[in-house]
Amino acid sequence: MERLQKIMAQAGVASRRKSETLIATGHVQVNGQVVTELGTKVGPNDAIQVDGIALMQEKFVYYLLYKPRGVVSTAHDDKGRQTVVDLLEEVTERVYPVGRLDYDTSGLLLLTNDGQLANQLMHPRYKVDKTYIAKVKGIPTNEALEQLRHGLVIEGHKTAAAKGKVLSIDRRKNTAVVQLTIHEGHNHQVKNMLAAIGTPVEKLSRETYGPLTLAGLTSGDYRPLKPQELLALREAVSQTAKPHQRRR
């Protein structure tokens, strides 16, 4: 649900302030009823009219993409590189990625035109877990993994506690495969965290985002979210927000 004046501004009716004036002076109807309350919220299924002219709301869509390496996580790229939006060839709606994965990182990426949900997922207060699988140079010690679990200082910022474990070890090549779960999203965070404990990343993939997984997809594939997945994603945001709500 979004405020009525915001929906009107997004649809190009007028600026948000001018839209507020239109609402307050009785020019706007929602589901056949004149609305003058500025706090009114509407959803994608509500019928909105301004001076008798129907307002066409953009339908929210949600796509899960298995991002390949060598693709940028933006809608447009000044250097002419392939973007994640380019991969969604049959999607006609204007969508954008929720957060980003590095150019050389693969894995799960959500794309949508639902700005409210996107902002909630990207905001650290909601603590939506993201799990990564990294091939690293070196073999992390238990002490190093404990540093990740308690947080460490990188570029003046102490990271939140992460969940890390070693999945496999190749002693001959002196490499390991590490699983790391975080809920923050600072630039190059996973790479910086693993480098800080002496195991720089050679290859990185994001495997989960909240309740979403890559099950059934291969690199470059995408599909719309299933209704139950979207519900689970909204519930994950709602549940993690509750401890941070202010008391009145």
UniProtKB/TrEMBL annotation:
Kindly state which keywords UniProt assigns to this record, in alphabetical order.
Answer: Isomerase, RNA-binding
Which family does the record claim for this protein? Belongs to the pseudouridine synthase RsuA family.
Among CDD domains, the record links this protein to: PseudoU_synth_RsuA_like, S4
Which segments constitute the RNA-binding S4 domain? Answer: 2-59
Q: Which InterPro entries match?
A: PsdUridine_s_RsuA/RluB/E/F_cat, PsdUridine_synth_cat_dom_sf, PsdUridine_synth_RsuA/RluA, PsdUridine_synth_RsuA/RluB/E/F, PsdUridine_synth_RsuA/RluB_CS, RsuA_PseudoU_synthase, S4_RNA-bd, S4_RNA-bd_sf
EC numbers on record:
5.4.99.-
State the SMART domains in the record: S4
Instruction: Name the Pfam families on file.
Output: PseudoU_synth_2, S4
What highest taxon heads this organism's lineage? Bacteria
According to UniProt, the name of this protein is Pseudouridine synthase
* Keyword check for Isomerase: yes
